[in-house]
């Protein structure tokens, strides 16, 4: 009883302290979260919103370093190297008051491994999750997996009871257009609870005063109002006029203007994300081209020609105004497996033309390019620039740019032949890229691999990465997988993004390489 | 017999020059200036391939490094100079305006023709036949009038885009625009023609035609139509300006002409992104062209309405 009063007083004190600095943060970015179901879409903005409401066992803090969250400690089991043991935080409550226990972890991990989940690739090595007691969980992997904890930083923990009561046990089928309770409602353990949400218009979150980390984090933002503003000029105008406090994507043309405005700051950092084009090379014939009975993209010479026809320096100079780093491989420099040699490509239009002629497409062909217009920095402008560069080697590109909510299902449903995609690597390891983008598309892996590329030998090597404990041997395997990816020109890398966060000078935060602001870390002056 | 000599036979041109209509034109400086502007702009658009220094619709000729070149200044990388500067993709703004105006004018004219054909036909039928035909046509028109034309156009555009196969979408975009604007704009024609037809229907010449047994369709086409064309001409002119603006609005909203084949509205949408960053010319010149075009057609229509209105003579 006495103990409880103590907690109450502490809570009261804390709430008065917060009351003194009650701060609403009005936050905008180009696009909205695609769903509130935490396992339905493995996509940046979706996770960013989820991170405020839900929590994983481990998060990355604003510098990218792992930090204990719902797990307090984790280590491989002393008896069996294929088992990871997680000790869970005690006394954590969901927003609806339910206790967070091992049962919820078992439920959530199994949910994230289920059929409709978009997070399966991260857990493909996990064969069993079991609760040892209320606050200890064991994950059994298919052979020792040294990097498993790094895979858990976006795997959110749902309440089993809440999910069962609300018919939310199954993951929402986003591609199939399904709507579920969990897609529009949320019940997490996170620092903020959902007040209201109107997709693509406005989402309001308020501080969870029962949050377990109340006195461990600044927790200075008490209310968050999130408004997606797709149009770049409107977004900047909103920041300049004081309508919003924080925008995650200052358009590159307006950096100077925002930085020169009194009371506003721009903070810049390289992002752990690479932008590239994917090509459907696996189909016998493409639906969206003018070549009948053959697939021009199946020819490695055509892909190589397209690769060297892209003038990455021009895109960097003009479209990105220097705010990017040209890329030759689809791994950002943050990632284990990245090399400077592979990351460089020379533009050579003449050689590209020769390759096209060699492949029998000297007169070119026409194809549709699908592109998002509210996801990546200047995504549509990059695609437009690519139209001109492809035209120089005879490829007529019909550009179809649309919001990401319509664009991404084309990729996951295999309905596009030539598409733009960006990939961030929250695990900082190449295995994540291979699992999602290189492995043959199947039940466990390859959900974002729309290239139709299938190489059983390579698949085997990718699968074995999860259980390779000798780090040198593992890095060698990673290097040889990259060699194949580069030789086959599986993707056409464009650049690594640079982040530009714009905010009022009242907001104290540094840019995270994941582009995922977690507002509990924000300080408000 | 009269002493006064018969007036010398005037040439057709002479007669046209001396007509009331021409007289009113000669004494309306606004009409002269605006028709001059319209004429110049239409000529510039039609002759775009001859006048424009670049072909902005051919992506192979673009050099991205030319992007954001200010008007009249040499590009820092390539040394190329452009009269009105370049946009974000290195397209010459002057050439793009000429080609974009072609699309805007073509869509405008074609959409008005479509609206006119539909509206005049339905208006004639409603006015002449009356009864349930009139009720149905005019109620449909009333219902459509309650929606802003731009919303109707967006709806039609959305449906049409949904049913066109993706590989033809770029080519179809123009025709879909024409269809969308045309279908959203016929009501005005129908209402005016119906009203005029009701008046004409009761006049003696129509009754005479009926008595000698001409078919209703022949009467509508040969007798009534020529007499209701004056107001139609006025509405068509004003509609043309509205259709050009509607096309620009749709393209500005991103549902019209594709960015690789921009119309004036698409250009303004692109330029608007760079409003804060000092690259004013990408927005300014296309907007100026649109303003000049729409304003002078509108002024011309205004004058036409006054000139053809018997009550104002």
What does this molecule look like?
The complex is a heterodimer of chains A (525) and B (313). By secondary structure, chain A is an alpha+beta fold. Chain A has two domains: 10-263 and 505-524, D-Maltodextrin-Binding Protein, domain 2 (3-Layer(aba) Sandwich); 271-497, Dipeptide-binding Protein, Domain 3 (Dipeptide-binding Protein, domain 3), CATH 3.10.105.10. Chain A contains 15 helices and 19 strands. In chain A, the strands form five sheets. In chain A, strands 1, 8, 9, 10, 11, 12, 13, 16 and 17 form a nine-stranded mixed β-sheet that branches. The two termini of chain A are 37 Å apart. Mean pLDDT of chain A is 92; it is low at 1-20. Chain B is mainly alpha-helical. Chain B has one domain: MetI-like (MetI-like fold, Orthogonal Bundle), CATH 1.10.3720.10. Helices cover 69% and strands 0% of the residues of chain B. Chain B contains 13 helices and no strands. Chain B has helices at 12-18, 20-26, 29-46, 48-51, 93-129, 131-145, 149-163, 169-184, 186-201, 204-211, 216-252, 264-272, 281-308. In chain B, helix 9 (186-201) runs antiparallel to helix 11 (216-252). Chain B is globular. Chain B starts with 11 loop residues before the first helix and ends in a 5-residue tail after the last helix. The mean pLDDT of chain B is 88. The interface between A and B is medium-sized, with 38 and 29 residues. Chain A: Belongs to the bacterial solute-binding protein 5 family.
* Shape estimate of chain B: globular
Helix content of chain B: 55-70%
Strand tally of chain A is 19
CATH architecture of the largest domain in chain A: 3-Layer(aba) Sandwich
- Overall average pLDDT of chain A: 92
Please state the average pLDDT score of chain B.
88
Query: Low-confidence stretches of chain B at least 5 residues in length (pLDDT < 50)?
Result: none
**General form of chain A:** globular
Largest sheet geometry of chain A: 9 strands, mixed
Beta strand % of chain B = under 5%
Tally the helices of chain A: what do you get? Answer: 15
- Rg of chain B, rounded, reads 24 Å
First-to-last CA distance of chain A: 37 Å
Give the oligomeric state: heterodimer
Q: State the name of the first-level CATH class of the largest domain in chain A.
A: Alpha Beta
Number of domains of chain B: 1
Radius of gyration of chain A: 24 Å
| Strand elements of chain B, count | 0
Q: Of all protein chain pairs, which has the greatest interface, and how many residues does each chain bring to it? A: A-B, 38 and 29 residues
